[in-house]
Amino acid sequence: MSAKIWKSIVVAGTISLLWSPSVTIASVIITKQPESQIADYDGNATLSVIAFTLNEYLPLTYQWYRGTEEIEGANLPVLNLSGLKRGDDAVYYCRVRNRTGYLQYSNLARISMGKGSVVGWGKNNDGQCDGPPDNKDIVAIAAGEDHGMALKTDGKVVVWGSNYWAQRYVPPSLADVVAIAAGRDHCLALKADGTIVAWGSNEFGQRDLPDDLDNVVAIDAGAAHNIALLKSGLVEAWGNNEYGQCEVPTLLKNVKAISTSHQHSVALRK
Fold this sequence. Notes:
This protein has 270 residues and is mostly beta strands. It has no helices and 23 strands. A hairpin with a 2-residue loop joins strand 7 and strand 8 (69-70).
């Protein structure tokens, strides 16, 4: 039996359905995404999604994640977190699935534990210790060789220090950022939709993202290479491969954390 195929748009809070070849009657559609927020230590935070499927006989199930790890018992459209501690400062998202196996992942949302200002010290030949001009409302930082990066509460990124490789030229349209990383002379930003934006030096292809790189939940940058952790628990790497730092082990999977140094990478498995 044939069925009409639809997609949804939200206009002024109202769901409208339009014909689309990309969405089937069994598809899962998320109409409200979780939003990043600031929380206090030992405080509370709430994340939520709104989703539906066009077939009312296919009930939805929910699973919330912190990074790549399932949060035990978090199986409702609303995730309530209480008694927040340092490890809760992380990226969260929800998997929504129906009985047929169709699924959809929500956007990423970052819970940041407080906000503040940057203090720097040490070598300051390019002003890398001076901090950003508007030094407030900062929730995450990263440092390159002679430049610094900061993620602000509004999801925007600021960079200061050396601009020799255009590190300070943050793409004007960059928004909805949930994580940042700084290489020796380049910058990375992870957006809420699970995609990465790179700028600065491309001497070793560190700005040349792998094809179809998405569903990313964490990033890190070495001197001239990058690694990304995917929702699937797999790892991608690109850039300088002089010492094999981009040759991810073939059997590496079920990863929950990543880190890089100048010329090597490490992964923590579940």
